[in-house]
Amino acid sequence: MASERSTPKQKILYWTKTVFYLLLSSFLISFAAHALIKPNDFTIGGATGVAILLNVLSKGKIPQSVVVFFINLPLVVLSFFFVKKKFALLSATNIGLQTLWLVLIETLFPDFKIEFGDGGEKIFAAIAAALCIGTAIALAFKIGGSTGGADIAAVMIQRKFSATSIAWVIFSINSL
To answer: Which pLDDT belongs to residue 2?
Structure first.
């Protein structure tokens, strides 16, 4: 983080990078959920996966954006007390931006989807979605935050059991 001893140029660079990473990370999650995962009839773990399932089960009446926001709200509050304030604020910002991106995408491009072939190549959609989500998580962790959901839970578990790998905990939570 930009410390008090940083020059104004270093602080501007730090905040520019942070905002860019937040915008890109949140967009990648939202884009993957709306354009790659849901239209290809599969889901992922975590809050976004639950949001996709509820959206499909309600035949679109429950927007993904609403579910993502409300699942993550208590997790952000918990992270504020059990992790760090900076982590909680960056995670909350990422989740807020995910919600905003999803609202924009759902409103402006409700039928936008990316399909590979005649449906037989869904593995490519899964790979593309995994690349988007993996990159989003890496960007969020790089600046000291998270993308929400399982990431927040994994960081809280990591703080409690420091020998645990965050990647393994995220995988375990998402598998459940």
So the answer is: 60
List the alpha helices (DSSP H) in the chain.
Answer: 8-31, 46-57, 64-82, 85-108, 122-142, 150-160, 166-175
Region 30-44 average pLDDT: 87
Q: How far apart are CA 78 and CA 165, in angstroms?
A: 20
For residue 138, the surrounding DSSP H or E stretch is helix 122-142
Task: Report d(CA 172, CA 14) in Å as an integer.
Answer: 33
Cα separation of 64 and 48, whole Å? 8
C-alpha pair distances (Å), 5 with each of 9, 17, 73, 94: 11, 18, 34, 27
**Residue with the two structure tokens 């960081």:** 155
- Provide, rounded to the nearest whole percent, the portion of the chain with pLDDT above 90: 51
Q: Two tokens at 128?
A: 């593309």
Residue at token pair 């954006």: 65
User: Cα dihedral sign for 17, 138, 38, 113?
Assistant: positive
